[in-house]
């Protein structure tokens, strides 16, 4: 007995989804090479063997593609969690930094976009502003769950949260520029020892 | 008795220097708006009322102008110090962060360039790599002079130096995206309290 043929629409849907992912990955590569403003839909289309017209069938505009890039990156980072709903644990944050140390391509794409996002009317500007707000709030919750209203160092969770976020972003730039000069996971652990000398070996 | 007329060359030299500075400031503005790759010499020339040909008289290429932008920014930060020769003190680092909180334009230019610098073959790439190496080394010297081979938190100066640099860079992105949501000098002082709970009020 063979499985019944799946209706065309579904097959197209699954194929379409795979194709969309392939396009988003190609867009990440082009952004890592040239930044978002320097990226062209033509360059993305060429990487996946589509015409620019064919690409627009999947993503009607360059901004739509940018949103898809940022969304995919968030999904990779958060695993099963939904950002803004369930804060990560400290151990999960360490896990993200360790994973990042093995995926310079996506770290490069994200860092380039973060830099560009502070320029005028950049389409990623609102994304980063909202994301920072959520991530600072989540980190404060994470820190409070672990250590209560005062960290061993005397800081409040609200004081430490923007520092935790700044360390993750800031280390990435140093590491991208000199991978052999900066051990990103070790540096992040050193920062956690500042927060609590006892907690992390 | 009147002063003898100064030779043309000298007057041109002084005027030329003022003009060069005016051009560099215009370039900073254009980079803050569009990034370096998105910046055109035509846009810079227009801001200072020069033709593009006239601008090339002062800066023969876009890269020359970029170098001048980065150099001027370093001069503003370092005051009388020469980066790589005399490390700043902790108090001077606090002073830089406080000054930055009142000059978002140059912070924006620098942050945009830092982001772009991780993309392929970016002309600011070597500058940032070398600068980070120097600044980490300088910061380790600063920390050792102040606290010796072990900070009160137990970290070595070499462990804390990249964190200090990462905090300064990382906070700038959060602050640029939401100035009312992040108090950059207060956050930097909170980080210093992590290093030494006694040292900073």
Automatic annotation (TrEMBL), chains A, B:
Keyword Metal-binding: no
Keyword annotations: DNA-binding, Repressor, Transcription, Transcription regulation
Start-end of DNA-binding region: 40-59
Domain HTH tetR-type residues, every copy: 17-77
Signal peptide start-end: none
Presence of the UniProt keyword Transcription regulation in the record: yes
PANTHER family listed in its UniProt record: HTH-TYPE TRANSCRIPTIONAL REGULATOR BETI (PTHR30055:SF234), HTH-TYPE TRANSCRIPTIONAL REGULATOR RUTR (PTHR30055)
Protein name per its UniProtKB record: TetR/AcrR family transcriptional regulator
Organism (species): Glycomyces endophyticus
Phylogenetic lineage: Bacteria, Bacillati, Actinomycetota, Actinomycetes, Glycomycetales
């Amino acid at each position: 007995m063979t499985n019944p043929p799946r209706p065309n629409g579904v097959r197209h849907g699954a194929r379409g989804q795979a194709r969309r992912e392939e396009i988003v990955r190609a867009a990440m590569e082009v952004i890592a090479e040239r930044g978002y403003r320097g990226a062209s839909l033509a360059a993305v289309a060429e990487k996946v063997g589509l015409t620019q017209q064919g690409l627009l069938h999947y993503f009607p505009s360059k901004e739509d593609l940018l949103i898809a890039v940022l969304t995919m990156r968030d999904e990779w980072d958060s695993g099963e969690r939904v950002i803004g709903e369930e804060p990560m644990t400290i151990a999960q944050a360490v896990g993200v930094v360790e994973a990042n140390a093995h995926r310079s391509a996506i770290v490069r794409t994200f860092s380039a976009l973060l830099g560009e996002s502070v320029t005028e009317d950049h389409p990623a500007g609102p994304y980063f502003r909202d994301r920072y707000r959520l991530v600072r709030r989540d980190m404060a919750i994470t820190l409070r769950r672990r250590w209560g209203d005062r960290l061993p160092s005397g800081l409040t969770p609200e004081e430490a949260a923007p520092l935790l976020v700044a360390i993750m972003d800031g280390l990435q730039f140093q590491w991208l520029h000199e991978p052999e000069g900066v051990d990103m996971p070790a540096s992040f652990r050193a920062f956690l020892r500042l927060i609590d000398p006892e907690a992390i070996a």
